[in-house]
Every structure is written in C-alpha cells, then in structure tokens.
Amino acid sequence: DITFVDAEKYYDKALNSQASVIIIDQEPPANLNNKPLLIHPKPFDAYNGLIDLFRPFNIPHNTGSEIENIHPTAKLGMNVIIGSNVQIGAETIIYPNVVLYDNVHIGSHCIIHSGSIIGVDAFYYKKEKNNYRKWTSGGRVILHDRVEIGAMCSIAKGVSGDTIIGTGSKLDAQVHIGHGVEIGRNCLIAAQVGIAGKTTIGDNVTIYGQVGIAQNLQ
C-alpha cells in the first residue's frame, strides 16, 4: 500500500500506518519504522498522478453485450451503461438506465433499480487558498450477493479503498452512500438516507428514511 502526507502534524500518523511506502514533502525528523519514503514537493499531486496511471479515467459507454465479466444468467435492461473492469454475478437483475462506473463488482442475485449510479467519484477535495483541488478516486464499489439497490441511488467509490455493501442488505430509493463506506450484512436502509465517507455500519442494522450519518463513524 502507498499513502501520502503533506502536513507535518500528520507525519507520525503516516509513518505509523500500515502503508508500505509514503510520499512525503520532506525528510521527517524521525522514521523509527524505517518506512521507504518518496520525497516530493507536492505529495498530493504525486498521489493523484499514480491514480491516473493505474486507474486511468474512462467514460462508461459500453452496454452489457460488450462486457466479458457478466454472468450469462444476469439480466440487463435497456440503456445500462457499464465501465471498465465491471463484474456482474449470476441471476442479477439491472433495470434500465443504470450506470456502473469502472471497477464495480456486483455479486449474484442482486437487483439494481432504474436510474441508480454505482461508482461515482468521491466528494473529496483538498482545500487550497482560493480553490478546491479534486482528489482522484481510485477505489472500487463492491456489492455482495443478494443486495438490492432502489431507484435513483448513488454510491461513491472509495478514494483509495473500497465502498462495500454486505450480503443481503437492501437500499430504498434515493439513498446516497459516500466513499469508502462499509455496510454489513442484512441491513435495511430507507429512502433519502445519506451516509458520509468512511463510516462503517454493522450487520442487521435498520436506518429509517431521511437520516444523515456523519463521516468516519463506526
């Protein structure tokens, strides 16, 4: 794994993380774990460059008939748009006008209703003096078996990891799942719920409509 750090107050956190390599803006005062360091004046730019190299931007435009990793028993409606490196399991049903961005993995016996978008970019930016710089999303979305996604939902990919929805969980219409969220098994999430990035929801959780959940909660 690789991470970056460009603020001295986060040096210790990065150096003590599980990352194998760290992009950093200067030699730190101490590197007790002897982590391999890549010194770069703008670690944020270097990190985004790596994502662009290994997960290049593609406009999703393929239909199901052109994709290799779709199980022959899966059923796709009209105008389903599919990006690169998408996998769709057995007996899964995807209704018309669904968009699957790159690197979306869908298990078996799933249902995705019309108008939902899976794998959108994370809403994640670096604040600069007069601007917000987009942090390139290089993660995936993984839907395990028997997941149902209601109409007009949006599920963001992880920034550097995965957004995961566990086996048997069901989302109602107009639910938003932020980047890197992990939802456990057999959860029920009602309409107009929004879950912010990197929050973890356990198994067998019910969340009623119009609930907002902040980021980084467990």
What would your notes on this structure say?
With 218 residues, the protein is mainly beta. Helices cover 8% and strands 30% of the residues. The protein is built from two helices and 25 strands. The chain has helices at 11-15, 43-54; strands spanning 2-5, 21-24, 37-39, 75-76, 81-82, 87-88, 93-94, 99-100, 104-106, 111-112, 117-120, 125-127, 132-134, 140-143, 148-149, 154-156, 162-165, 170-171, 176-177, 182-183, 188-189, 194-195, 200-201, 206-207, 212-213. The strands form five sheets. It has a seven-stranded parallel β-sheet with strand order 4-7-10-15-18-21-24, with no helix packed on it. Strands 5-8-11-16-19-22-25 form a seven-stranded parallel β-sheet, with no helix packed on it. The longest helix is centred in the first third of the chain and has 12 residues, at 43-54. The two termini are 23 Å apart.
Topology:
Blueprint lengths: L1 E4 L5 H5 L5 E4 L12 E3 L3 H12 L20 E2 L4 E2 L4 E2 L4 E2 L4 E2 L3 E3 L4 E2 L4 E4 L4 E3 L4 E3 L5 E4 L4 E2 L4 E3 L5 E4 L4 E2 L4 E2 L4 E2 L4 E2 L4 E2 L4 E2 L4 E2 L4 E2 L5
Parallel strand pairs: 1-2, 2-3, 4-7, 5-8, 6-9, 7-10, 8-11, 9-14, 10-15, 11-16, 14-17, 15-18, 16-19, 17-20, 18-21, 19-22, 20-23, 21-24, 22-25
Antiparallel strand pairs: 12-13
- What is the helical fraction, as a range of percent? under 10%
Distance between the termini: 23 Å
Mean pLDDT: 92
| Percentage of β-strand residues | 25-35%
The total strand number stands at 25
Order of helices and strands: EHEEHEEEEEEEEEEEEEEEEEEEEEE
Overall 3D shape: globular
Give the structural class. Answer: mainly beta
